[in-house]
User: What shape does this take?
Amino acid sequence: MNSGTPAVRAAGPTPRGSTRMRLTEGSPGARILAFGGYQPTRVVTNDELAATMDTNDEWIRSRVGIASRRIAGPDETVADMAASTS
Assistant: This one.
């Protein structure tokens, strides 16, 4: 019978000055252990995109709300992106 409070354990070693993330035991599935962010250096504007398609900046902004987006270059791998976030 479940008492309502899940058992917890620490997730790996803790660097000095940080707190440990607690994992719930007995729950199947994946867990998010960290968050990170990475932005590729190449910025593609709506005007650049419109040059290759039948659209324009105003149409894209009014329907999607995007002014620019970042696109990874051929030399930027997922592993490189992940390593840059740590």
Observations:
- The chain has three helices and four strands.
- The chain has a mean pLDDT of 80.
